[in-house]
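This part of the workshop introduces the protein records we will be handling. Getting from the letters to the tokens is the skill we practise here. An example says more than a description, so a record of this kind follows:
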Amino acid sequence: MTPKRHKGAGALPKNGPFDGPKTVESPAPKPPKSDALYAALDLGTNSCRMLIAQPRGSQFHVIDSFSKSVQLGAGLESTGKLSRASMARTIQALRICQQKLKRHKVKRMRLVATEACRRAGNGAGFMRQITRETGLTLDIIKPEEEARLAVISCAPLVSKETEQLLVFDIGGGSTELVWIDLSGVPAPERPKAIMRLHAGFHEVSHKHVAAKVVDWISVPLGVATLRDHFDDVEDDAARFALMSWYFEEHLAEFAPYKNEQTKTGFQIVGTSGTVTTVAASHLGLKRYDRNKVDGLRMSSDEIDKVIRMYLKLGPTGRRRDPRIGQDRQALIMSGAAILQALLRCWPTDQLSVADRGLREGLLYAQMSADGVLEDGVY
């Protein structure tokens, strides 16, 4: 028997007994105040990415975002300069970013460029061109700041049990590694101690016990530059092995590389498209889901299994694999070669996957400096 609806169910509300029916409208959400918004833009070797967000508690809430593959570093290895075509693609993407910033009336922002612009002979000139054509002012940041921002972005993923922390960020043109000693910081304070590094790696904290940066390095090899180094090697497996060996050679001067570490109290956090793609493949995701990937922990054996699967697929199979995606398939093996080299040096049962990076670090740094984040658990 079909249940009866009560009398008047579904009727439109009326102002009064003689007024006609009115349209039911939910009140529009109030847009956030522009002075509460922050923006962060990361112009890398491959991509142009931007986030617009507002502080919320000890985190932030994303209002708008932008991501576009611009391949700014295409041809840089052979010519030492940014090409006209790559600069034109980048200018087009930055115009969209400028429109978003204007529409949201963002007042607090940090817009940066990284390795491709650092290395290019015409990098500084390109920054001036960007300002002329878009009105945006980008800073070419130094490797130390890039490494520091990557570390800050991963603060919410740092375990309170972690005493020794390795954070790495595999970019398009470079890879940053930072080793941090947290053993002198009280366990509940460790994630927040990472956040306080926004002031600098070697700033002394007088109010809090500081995280100690043991060593850091910026290797001038990322997924694009490493691939370009071995582009002439035809055999897929041989090219992968050479890339992994070549990257490991560049770690020789990184101090913690020389000492064997115990797994107790040791955590690795990896942030990059490579790491999130490997995690998505491990989970068997055909449609990427950030909520399932960000914060996932994987062992060295689980990561090695995914990399072996990539090698077995070969170039054609990787292009067709929905877990890798068209944007990532051309760069996944150079990224995997870097990842494999890192895990040969520091095998782990708990590599934390971070779907976050420079943009998040830029936002956290700005908000922390302004004191607008709650001093709670991250």
Summary: The mean pLDDT is 86.
